[in-house]
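User: Before I run my own analysis I want an independent prediction to cross-check against. Here's the chain; please return only the structure tokens and, at the end, one sentence I can use as a sanity check.
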Amino acid sequence: MAIILGIDPGSQKTGFGIISTLNGKNSYITSGVIRLPKGALPERLRIIAESVAELVELHGPTELSVEQVFLAKSADAALKLGQARGAAIVPCVLRGLEVSEYSARQIKQSVVGTGAADKAQVQHMVKALLKLPGAPQEDAADALAAALCHAHTREGLVRVVGATAIRRGRLR
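Assistant: Structure tokens:
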């Protein structure tokens, strides 16, 4: 079984979602949004890092799936987003988590079936795939979608490796 932490980084709000995956079955553990105060960026980055470290300690994920930086509205916004990503990634790496990065398009394609999906479509599919009673908040849904994307990618790789090994006579 793998426990996957998904992160949707942001310098104002950082979404998180944690799922477990076993034999192609994904189960919801928790999700939410780290809401950051207005003020100096270094303080907001500290809050992200400490909050992610606490999530890792509490839930024990083994893998991290994080959305890659995309071209934001401005260079300044892209830099802040990159710093928020770093603040979320470092506590995971320090605890030995395997880190995988996916573009927003890859995540949406994996969960919704189209890389051009909107936020409402992502929320709907995350709710359906994880059998949640209600739609998660936007940023939490994006983080859960990142975790699901990684689970789907992981499962596909296991199938490919297994199929290749079977063809070569390695598995019985």
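Sanity check: Strands lie at 2-8, 13-22, 25-35, 63-67, 98-102.
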